[in-house]
């Protein structure tokens, strides 16, 4: 694969700068933080729903980001997007661990069933991404945004899911434009997002 357009700081101008910022904002931790807020509020009143959303957001979205930033600071990873697959092993492992902790808390304290399903999905998705990335740089951005689209469709209705479609298309385009992924890595990411969500329907999630 070619060198990413935004890998060098001096290249981060104009459209490249915009695309990089867009990738950082419309990223899996942000998308799932929003889902982790919307899903508890669907079944609970505001404050109980907000508390469960906070548990999810802190452990599943914020904690892995802080780990990545720390690893970046100490030089374990060379750049935020981790184009080198070897740099992704520890971040994926810690993200799975945090998702498992959150799942344990939600299960132990009888949290919302839909949130438990979302956490099971997070564990499955992150574990699959971690394994695949040992050999291949599959797109976690596309996996995340496609999975978000499917989950929104199953939980909130397919009309509501239309809101996510522009993000699916734009995220895929940005990752290709920045040369962060090949078309096949983007397609595989989307396929993994769909399969990860639909496989959980076999155990009664998102039904």
Describe this structure as you would to a colleague.
The chain is mainly alpha-helical and 207 residues long. The protein has one domain. Helix content is 71%, strand content 0%. α2 (28-43) packs parallel to α6 (140-156). The longest helix has 28 residues, at 46-73. The termini are far apart. The mean pLDDT is 94.
Compact description:
The chain is built from 9 helices and no strands. The protein is an all-alpha fold.
Q: How are the secondary structure elements laid out?
A:
Elements: H1 14-25, H2 28-43, H3 46-73, H4 89-108, H5 113-132, H6 140-156, H7 158-161, H8 165-177, H9 183-200
Helix pairs in contact: 1-8, 2-3, 2-6, 3-4, 4-5, 5-9, 6-8, 6-9
Tally of distinct domains: 1
Q: What count of helical segments does DSSP give?
A: 9
Rg to the nearest angstrom?
Answer: 17 Å
Q: Would you tell me the overall average pLDDT?
A: 94
Structural class: mainly alpha
User: Based on CA inertia axes, which overall geometry fits?
Assistant: globular
Spans of at least 5 consecutive residues with low confidence: none
List the helices and strands in order.
HHHHHHHHH
Let me know the number of strands.
0
Q: What composes the largest sheet?
A: none
The percent of residues in helical segments reads over 70%
Beta content? under 5%
In whole angstroms, how far apart are the ends?
A: 39 Å
Q: What are the key terms here?
A:
single chain; 207 residues; mainly alpha; 9 helices; 71% helix
């Amino acid at each position: 694969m070619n060198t990413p357009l935004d890998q060098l700081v001096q290249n981060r101008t104009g459209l490249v700068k915009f695309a990089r910022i867009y990738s950082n904002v419309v990223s899996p931790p942000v998308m799932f933080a929003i889902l982790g807020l919307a899903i508890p509020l669907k079944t609970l009143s505001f404050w109980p729903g907000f508390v469960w959303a906070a548990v999810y957001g802190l452990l599943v979205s914020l904690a892995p980001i802080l780990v990545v930033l720390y690893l970046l600071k100490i030089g374990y990873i060379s750049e935020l997007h981790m184009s080198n697959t070897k740099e992704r092993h520890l971040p994926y492992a810690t993200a799975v661990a945090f998702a498992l902790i959150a799942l344990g808390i939600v299960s132990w304290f009888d949290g919302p069933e839909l949130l438990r399903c979302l956490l099971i999905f997070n564990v499955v998705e992150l574990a699959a991404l971690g394994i695949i990335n040992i050999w291949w740089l599959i797109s976690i951005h596309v996996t995340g945004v496609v999975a978000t689209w499917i989950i929104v469709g199953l939980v909130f209705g397919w009309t509501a899911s239309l809101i996510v479609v522009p993000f699916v298309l734009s995220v895929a385009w940005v990752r290709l434009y920045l040369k962060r992924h090949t078309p096949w890595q983007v397609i595989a990411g989307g396929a993994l997002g769909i399969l990860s969500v639909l496989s959980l329907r076999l155990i009664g999630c998102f039904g």
